[in-house]
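Bumping my old thread because nobody answered last time. Still need a sequence for this structure:
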């Protein structure tokens, strides 16, 4: 019996709050917090308009070597480690796969993705491809992948090698349990230890940007309102007080 570790999941409330933070804001704030580059490059959004956040279940592929992973693996499905990354899936989880950017190998097909969707998975981030694309896209999952292929992975040159281990996905370091944010701009990795601070900083950033966007839509001075300058701070604080007052009065639009 193959035993693979489960992940330590962050509090759901924290993940749900981060889900409201766009990847652009998250990447910028993490950069200011000292992380130079948190973007996963290679996988691109295939479910436009979808935004997800969730803890990472990780899967690592290696170049296939027949003495390690041969035809007998399909005689015993339990030896197939790409199945095991799904076994512990919980609602809101995100599967992140280092498939080495391979465009010939399908990491998952319709059946496994159906299982993951049935477990409540949020989406998959794959530096590689999936199979059965037309059916897979009907599932309630978000997809950030390189594309589709008719091949299953061991039909080509890859083999699944590690589950819930540190991986490099699209040139980004991903730890099992890291919080993954993904939207139409791409994918960002949020280390658990930095998630609370990121949320606080991003919430403040999002709030002043909302005010600035309002002013810019009215033709106001770009130099004054983006980024928000000291000259606009008093006006911004007054806007905040007005928004808080409206929020405190039921039935009054903010």
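Sorry it took so long. Here it is:
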């Amino acid at each position: 019996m193959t035993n693979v570790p489960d992940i330590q999941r962050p509090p759901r409330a924290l993940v749900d709050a981060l889900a409201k933070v766009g990847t652009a804001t998250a990447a910028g704030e993490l950069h200011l917090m000292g992380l130079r580059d948190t973007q996963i490059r290679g996988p691109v959004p295939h479910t436009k308009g979808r935004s997800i956040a969730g803890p990472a279940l990780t899967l690592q592929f290696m170049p296939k070597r027949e003495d390690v992973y041969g035809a007998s693996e399909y005689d015993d499905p339990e030896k197939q480690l790409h199945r095991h990354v799904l076994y512990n899936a919980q609602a809101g989880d995100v599967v992140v796969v280092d498939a080495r950017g391979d465009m010939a190998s399908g990491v998952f097909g319709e059946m496994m993705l159906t299982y993951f969707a049935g477990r409540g998975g949020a989406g998959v981030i794959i530096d590689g491809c999936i199979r059965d694309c037309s059916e897979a896209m009907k599932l309630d999952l978000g997809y950030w992948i390189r594309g589709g292929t008719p091949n299953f992975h061991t039909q080509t040159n890859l083999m699944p090698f590690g589950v819930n281990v540190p991986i490099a996905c699209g040139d980004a370091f991903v730890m099992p349990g890291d919080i993954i944010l993904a939207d139409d701009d791409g994918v960002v990795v949020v280390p658990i230890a930095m998630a609370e601070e990121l949320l606080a900083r991003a919430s403040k950033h999002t709030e002043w940007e909302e005010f600035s966007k309002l002013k810019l839509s009215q033709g106001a001075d770009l130099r004054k309102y983006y980024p928000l300058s000291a000259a606009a701070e008093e006006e911004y604080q007054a806007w905040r007080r007005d928004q808080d007052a409206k929020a405190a009065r039921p039935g009054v639009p903010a």
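The CA atoms of residues 39 and 188 lie 5 Å apart. Let me know if any region looks off to you.
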